[in-house]
Design brief:
single chain, about 80 residues, alpha+beta, Enolase-like, domain 1, two-stranded antiparallel sheet
Length: about 80
Amino acid sequence: MGETDGFIKVLSDAKTDALLGVHCVGPNASELIAEAVLGMEFGASAEDIARTIHAHPTLSEVFREAALGTTGRMIHL
């Protein structure tokens, strides 16, 4: 894409790890938010998102990185 501006932030409960919300800002953010909504609807935790395969290189893998970040385990920071 050649884009470097934007971010994604995953909010999860400190005790249960349940997804509380996701913020997406930047190009193609609308394509990322659908996965977050699906995860929240089905009661996914940040760990569930982190363990889900996200192909590389794709835009969606940033969501996995953000989920890993809830426990300080980001790979590509």
